[in-house]
Write a structure and sequence with these properties.
flat, 6 strands, 3-stranded antiparallel beta sheet, alpha+beta, 3-stranded mixed beta sheet, binds zinc ion
Length: about 170
């Protein structure tokens, strides 16, 4: 199992690679490259993790305060279309975006109290799913497994919950 909330180092070459792949996609689509879009993309790939539109907007505004919600939203959707990013919706229904292909396949555990999202990967579980499919004469293309519950560490969980509530009040 991977450690929960593993921190991912910013990998500059990976960011560059993603930017190039996206530029190629934009060109294929016959769209124009815009500086705002480039800013959004590089901020997104530097952030990593499971990012909501609002979270991305906050970070983007630190770089260019003129960039608005609609541009961030549209850019994220282009990233999803280009297959560089996956949209995920966990228990709260809020769309979160995760750059994939840079991270190996993983599944998620979601705390319904504090909202923290942990990642895990278990080869035995993966193999079991393959076996189940086999037994059902079924071929799996992809899967997503989401476990909902709550942190056992109530102290940490409450601390996160309170700081999130304070953040929401301040925003
Ligand atoms: Zn994830
Ligand atoms: Zn929690």
């Amino acid at each position: 199992m991977m450690p929960a909330n593993r921190t991912r180092e910013v990998d500059e070459s990976l960011v560059k690679e993603k930017e190039a792949a996206f530029a190629e996609y934009i060109q294929r689509k016959g769209l124009k490259t815009t500086r705002q879009r480039n800013t959004i993309i590089s901020v997104f790939f530097k952030l990593r993790g499971h990012i909501s539109v609002e979270e991305l907007l906050n970070e983007v505004k630190k770089v260019n305060p003129r960039i608005g919600y609609a541009t961030v939203y549209r850019t994220l959707h282009l990233l999803v279309e280009s297959n560089l990013v996956e949209e995920r919706r966990f228990g709260d229904g809020l769309a979160r975006y995760e750059g994939h292909s840079d991270v190996e396949h993983h599944d998620h555990m979601i705390c319904l109290e504090c909202g923290i999202i942990s990642e895990f990967y278990n080869p035995r579980l993966e193999a079991l799913q393959e076996k189940l499919a086999e037994e059902n004469n079924f071929e799996i293309y992809r899967h997503r497994l989401e476990l909902y519950g709550a942190c056992k560490d109530k102290e940490e969980c409450n601390r996160r919950k309170n700081s999130k509530a304070a953040e929401a009040r301040g925003a």
